[in-house]
Design goal:
Elements lengths: L13 E3 L5 E3 L4 H17 L7 H11 L6 H20 L9 H6 E2 L2 E2 L9 H7 L9 H18 L10 H10 L7 H4 L7 E6 L19 H4 L5 E5 H6 L5 H9 L5 H4 L2 H16 L10 H15 L7
Antiparallel strand pairs: 1-2, 3-4, 5-6
Length: 309
């Protein structure tokens, strides 16, 4: 059964009732949760005041339309998140200051239809292996899509680990079932801005040829080996191999590091599966093949249509 959600999510979205008291914006808990996740995803990505284009678009949408209900607003935020991913971050990789308005506004009006027919191949061309320049938004959008898949397929259904739907859910993630705590308690953290190489840079070798014991710097600089975690956690485990990081991060009270990143939780579970179920040599429970498989799994989720109830 699902773990009871803790009161640790700092993000709230409320409104005043006629008695002057506050209550959550949406009567539907699922709609409320997704709106909160989308707004907090934008907020932790674009913290600087000069970068809050998303907030202008939200206010423009609300102020210039009458009778907007919660479902309308949710649909708008979903489209805006997709627009950012496809028409901004999959075009150049590093958007200019004008890229957001150029993509979202047409003649001063909001335009959220997707123009860039990007695919997983498009992603790999923009964010090539060997480059660490993958923006924070990509990681946050990935975690949103992972959470959304959980919310659609499993949330509220209390499915046992043996159920076909739950087994298929984790199969698509590329790992074994690690329970649902990380999904139930997931929220976007302001501190999660440090790029983690799960296979550490310090153990990579120079040159282009991998060995059985170490990978080259180019091969580990890929989306499949990256996650965003807090700088404190990253610095504490910076030079450790993946299996040792697994132990360290899993001991940080309720798996706090991995709860902050669903993508990283999946990476750690793959490493745990390899440690427990294979005869991998010590230090190689996370290798190039794992990185590639994980990247492919994440891209399939990013570019797939979410199943809806």
């Amino acid at each position: 059964t699902e773990v009871e959600q803790l009161n640790s999510n700092p993000w709230k979205l409320a409104k005043y009732d006629r008695n002057g008291e506050t209550k959550q914006l949406c009567a539907d808990d699922k709609v409320q949760a997704e709106i909160v996740h989308l707004l907090s995803m934008f907020e932790v990505t674009f913290t600087a005041k000069q970068n809050k284009n998303y907030l202008f678009y939200c206010l423009d949408y609300l102020f210039n339309r009458s009778n907007v209900d919660e479902l309308d607003y949710l649909s708008f935020l979903q489209q805006l998140a997709d627009k950012y991913f496809y028409d901004i971050y999959l075009k150049t990789g590093k958007p200019t200051s004008n890229a957001f308005d150029d993509a979202v506004l047409r003649g001063g009006e909001l335009e959220l239809s997707i123009e860039n027919c990007a695919t997983a191949d498009s992603f790999n061309k923009v964010y090539q292996e060997g480059s660490a320049a993958i923006p924070l938004y990509i990681f946050n959008y990935t975690d949103y899509r992972l959470w959304k898949r959980y919310a659609t397929v499993l949330k509220g259904k209390n499915l046992e680990a043996s159920s076909a739907a739950r087994r298929e859910f984790f199969t698509q993630l590329g790992c074994s079932d690690f329970q649902l705590y990380s999904f139930v308690n997931f929220y976007f953290s302001r501190t999660r801005k440090s790029l983690e190489h799960y296979y550490p840079q310090s153990k990579a070798i120079d040159g282009s040829k991998d060995t059985d014991y170490a990978l080259c710097h180019r091969s580990i600089n890929c989306f499949g080996n990256f996650a965003m975690i807090s700088s404190e956690a990253n610095s504490s485990g910076n030079n450790l191999d993946a299996a040792t990081k697994l132990i360290r991060y899993s001991d940080r009270g309720f798996d706090a590091v991995s709860v902050a990143s669903l993508k990283f939780k999946i990476m750690m579970q793959i490493c745990r599966d390899n440690r427990d179920n294979t005869l991998r040599q010590n230090g190689m429970q996370w290798n190039k093949e794992d990185m590639q498989k994980h990247q492919n799994a994440m891209l399939r989720i990013l570019f797939s249509q979410i199943i809806t109830d």
